[in-house]
Amino acid sequence: MEVNVLNVSGKQTGAKVQLPDSVFGIEPNDHAIYLDVKQYLANQRQGTHKSKQRNEIAGSTRKLHKQKGTGGARAGSIKSPLFNGGGRVFGPQPRDYSFKLNKKLKSLARKSALSYKAQDSNVVVLEDFSFDAVKTKSYIQLLADLQLTNEKTLLVLPAANNNVYLSSRNLKKTKVITADQLNTYDVLNAGKLILTSASVKTLEEAFAK
Fold first, then answer.
1. Residue 133, SS3?
2. Range of 84's domain?
């Protein structure tokens, strides 16, 4: 698939870039996407949730009343889960939610997500650019020139560019990553995928390994 290359003013440069079919033109695998997104979201969980069981509650272990003859239930401790302030039954405990996925499956999921974006014509390719200074106004102007002001965008750079990253950091609907940080969740979560000419080559080389 050929895509016109735009400059930072949103105008065509006359150049075109070939999006490789091996990355942007495969038959998407929905189950691979599901697993990769599930793993990504699971890895974001801290897993530090905790509630106290009855053996961890501070309180007396004195038997509340005699075993028989009260006409009520038998109660052995104020720390029982049946009482207000008692321990919790089967409450959450700290745990690790992360799980393993094979590299080939993760690669398939990312190529599937990129292919969906290409099929829906949601890929924009820019010529390589940089900002002279950190200015959020510069990034806002870039999005305005590309007519993407109200879109949720993901910009993929071939390598780290501090000026571009810091200029975009305060914008809610914008995220900037490098090609080696590309993940299925971010690709699908964005309305428009913005690539540079160099990042297209970087992605092709990365998925060819």
1. coil
2. 51-91
158 and 177 belong to one structural domain: yes
- Same structural domain, 178 and 84: no
Query: Of the candidates 132, 154, 135, 131, which has an alpha carbon nearest to the alpha carbon of residue 203?
Result: 154
Distance CA 185, CA 180 (A): 14
DSSP tag of 60: -
Q: What is the number of domains present in the chain?
A: 2
pLDDT digits (tens, 9 = 90+) for 77-93: 999 999 999 999 999 99
pLDDT band for position 209 (50/70/90)? Answer: low
Q: What is the CA radius of gyration of the chain?
A: 27
**Is there a single domain that holds both residue 42 and residue 108?**
yes
Residue 155 near residue 148, CB atoms below 8 Å: no
pLDDT (tens digit per residue) in 164-179? 999 999 999 999 999 9
Assess whether 61 and 32 both reside in one domain. Answer: no
